[in-house]
């Protein structure tokens, strides 16, 4: 049985400060949360940046650099930077963490979807006045990732020796990647991150995961690695199911604020520790960062620009 990579997505651009007192906001909080994940067994951390004053998602490259450098200094983690960013960011803003930081890994969204967070506003007790309008605005949002944009992301990542982590929110996005492979835009080993349970994307159900894995093998061949993330309460059921299918897993406060029903996770490390326990209880082994680098063909942290 191959070793399982645990990725921890630290803060994201979805949850807002009013949802959990434990959501990391400042660079120091994000770095410290990443270190809890590292100590618990994560090999990869996926990072976004937030305005330290009010927690709003930001593309500020100085904050990205501070976060990435702090994680690198204190751990051997693979740092995966987002190109999803926050709502309304331009392609240039979304790609800047790649061109400036040259990370080992970066998210690369594989298609456009409706990305709806509006229902969360109904039960939110906001900490800041931007939170409810931010969530409600997604009722009229298309998370745009055109073919021209995807091509630009892939080419930019390859030019910076950054491995694209293809975020797949629905089954049609696998077909998009198959096209880019066919025409030669994608010409290196493929790493997929199935992201399930977003309103507008594929529901987080085990049979849907099995279907997407099957279609990936049919359309991409057998030369790829894959992982899965699931929103909210589906996080642990779906990641546990993935283990039996040979997948890697992603947990963390970006995807789910809870450790178990009605119990908020105090940090991403608590979720990583629980995931590691599940992996080992089912006979698996957790990959170290160095083992993950070999699995994902990552260049090593000495070659990043932060």
Attribute tags:
306 residues, alpha/beta, TIM Barrel, two-stranded antiparallel ribbon, 10 helices, 18% strand
Task: Explain this structure.
α1 (27-40) packs parallel to α2, α2 packs parallel to α3 and α3 runs parallel beside α5. Helices cover 38% and strands 18% of the residues. An eight-stranded parallel barrel has the order 1-2-5-6-9-10-11-12, surrounded by seven helices. The protein has one domain (6-303): TIM Barrel. With 306 residues, it is of the alpha/beta class. It is built from ten helices and 14 strands. The radius of gyration is 17 Å and the shape is globular. β9, α6 (172-182) and β10 form a beta-alpha-beta unit.
Query: The CATH topology, please?
Result: TIM Barrel
Largest sheet: 8 strands, parallel, barrel
> Share of helix among residues?
25-40%
Distance between the termini: 35 Å
Number of strands: 14
Q: How is the largest sheet built, in terms of strand order?
A: 1-2-5-6-9-10-11-12
Sequence-ordered SSE layout with sheet pairings:
Elements: E1 6-9, H1 27-40, E2 44-47, E3 49-50, E4 57-58, H2 61-74, E5 78-81, H3 91-101, E6 105-109, E7 113-114, H4 131-136, E8 142-143, H5 147-159, E9 163-168, H6 172-182, E10 190-196, H7 206-220, E11 224-230, H8 235-244, E12 248-251, E13 258-260, E14 263-264, H9 268-281, H10 289-296
Parallel strand pairs: 1-2, 1-12, 2-5, 5-6, 6-9, 9-10, 10-11, 11-12
Antiparallel strand pairs: 3-4, 7-8, 13-14
Helix pairs in contact: 1-2, 1-9, 2-3, 3-5, 6-7
